[in-house]
Write a structure and sequence with these properties.
The complex is a heterodimer of chains A (about 180) and B (about 290). Chain A is mainly α and about 180 residues long. Chain A has helices at about 25-30, 45, 50-55, 60-70, 70-75, 90-95, 100-115, 120-130, 140-145, 160-165. Chain B has two domains: about 5-120, Glutathione S-transferase Yfyf (Class Pi), Chain A, domain 2 (Up-down Bundle), CATH 1.20.1050; about 135-285, Rossmann fold, CATH 3.40.50.11810. The chains are: A mainly alpha (about 180), B alpha/beta (about 290).
Chain lengths: ~180, ~290
């Protein structure tokens, strides 16, 4: 009776009306994301994730939940979706056979189309279209190979450029100020 | 013996050519013929980040180039192995394969699903075999305590590598190291990822993973790490200097690719055949232990 009633302020409450109920369906249209509905948020993915261990803000379970709730903008604009090290522990250990790693790739593809791609991946793609590999040609490695009597590398980007251009990957712009 | 198209990948030929040098030497030693296909390009694994479709097309194009010559592919990089092997699985689906082939047709290629992919370590393990390796050993490596590191894409996805390895309890690289006469050492962070695939986006994150493994190995009296992927090599070897400066550490752990360790045991020249002079952390102190 003497106790003052604590007032709790939820400053960061997100209104459900801001969610996009179509987001999950959009993600699920890609066959690689099909397991998402089977997720029951047990968190085994996060528990086995080496990135989550060193950087807890990167949280596969949380991201999967956010997708299912329809938090389109929050997920696609999040830098965290690019922090996967691709080790696939989440896939191997999921009791429901949800392939979080593959779902994340679908999310990254969607985010890239909306202008959130890290510059590093855009640059690698540009190099692939020019040289056929993820690096721009450098004299130093040409010389290094010569010294070891290894065969010279030729640039064979023509075919790869012609087929890959059909996917629109070359039209993706990097996120402003990204690494 | 057998014949493979050698898939160099992007990084090995330009940043870790000593891995290519040693691999060619070891394959020649065991009569494994390697055919160079100059038109091979990037396997597409990183392009998946921006476009799953583009990544699959790139993998399929490389598979088709080998298939047109009637060859299976031998890889050096764990990630290329995973990307190509996974593409083979995906392309078993007729609808996906037809879609991909429609695009490949424009550059005169088609993938029918015949070409297989094998990493060099797996070829050594399954085709040459540990017994035959043991019979050929000329130098004594028994003084060397080695920390094996497998590489995530060498083991996973399990759906692709089932029947070969167990991701949580791998053994083939341990056996290959033993076959070369050295001693594989147990350690807790064996399965920890090198962080190579997050390094272009966040060096802080990849370095945190590298440090965890190096810290774990620090008190194990290890002579060298032995691994089977050039990206893992770059992470664990090249980053030691930066980590030492940034965190006041004194790591000086040589990192070798498996064909280099095997080459040493088989009597190859450490410099001319294996390029051990090109390492960011000098393996000189382990060479003195090889008798």
């Amino acid at each position: 009776m003497n106790k003052a009633k604590k007032t709790v302020e939820f400053k960061e409450t997100i209104s459900i009306s801001e969610f996009d109920p179509g987001f999950k369906s959009d993600v699920l249209t890609h066959p690689d994301a099909r397991g998402l509905n089977a997720c029951f948020s047990c968190g085994t993915c996060s528990a086995g994730c080496p990135i989550h261990e060193v950087f807890p803000d990167y949280n596969p379970k949380k991201l999967a939940k956010m997708v299912r709730l329809g938090m389109r903008k929050e997920v696609l604009s999040s830098p965290h979706i690019w922090y996967c090290a691709t080790c696939r522990n989440c896939v191997e250990r999921c009791p429901q056979n949800v392939e979080f790693f593959s779902i994340l790739n679908v999310l990254k593809n969607m985010a890239a189309k909306e202008g959130y791609a890290p510059a590093a991946w855009v640059k690698q793609t540009k190099h692939v279209m020019e040289t056929g590999i993820v690096f721009a040609k450098e004299d130093s490695w040409v010389k290094k190979r010569e010294a070891l009597s290894l065969r010279p590398l030729k640039e064979y980007a023509d075919k790869i450029r012609r087929i890959v251009e059909k996917t629109g990957i070359d039209k993706i712009n990097p996120r402003v100020n990204s690494k | 013996m057998s014949k493979y198209a050698l898939f160099l990948g992007c990084t090995t030929p330009v940043k870790v050519p000593q891995y290519e040098l040693a691999s060619r030497w070891v394959c020649k030693y065991f009569g494994i013929e390697l055919i160079d296909i100059e038109e091979f390009t990037c396997c597409g694994i990183n392009q998946v980040n921006l476009s799953i479709e583009a990544g699959l097309l790139m993998a399929a194009m490389n598979l088709a180039l080998a298939e047109a010559r009637g060859l299976d592919i031998l890889t050096l990089c764990a990630a290329c192995t995973g990307a190509l092997a996974e593409a083979i699985e995906k392309l078993k689906d007729e609808t996906i394969r037809n879609n991909v082939n429609e695009k490949l047709r424009d550059v005169g290629l088609e993938y029918k699903g015949k070409t297989k992919v094998r990493h060099i370590s797996r070829v050594l393990y399954e085709e040459v075999g540990v017994e035959r390796i043991k019979q050929k050993i000329k130098k004594d490596l028994s003084a060397l305590r080695i920390a094996p590191h497998y590489g995530c894409h060498y083991l996973k996805p399990k759906s692709v590598f089932a029947g070969f390895e167990e991701p949580d309890n791998p053994k083939t690289l341990h056996e290959l190291i033993s076959a070369a006469g050295a001693r594989p050492v147990k350690y807790e962070t064996l399965g920890l990822c090198c962080g190579g695939k997050v390094s272009p986006v966040s060096e802080d994150l990849s370095r945190a993973l590298v440090r965890k493994k190096l810290d774990n190995l620090a008190d194990k009296e290890i002579d060298a790490m032995v691994l089977q992927c050039q990206t893992c090599y770059l992470m664990y070897s090249d980053q030691q200097k930066e980590i030492n400066e940034e965190y006041a550490k004194q790591y000086n752990l040589p990192v070798l690719l498996y064909p280099q360790l095997l080459g040493l045991a088989l009597g190859a020249d450490p410099v001319k055949d294996l390029g051990l002079n090109l390492h960011s952390v000098s393996p000189e102190k382990i060479l003195s232990k090889v008798i």
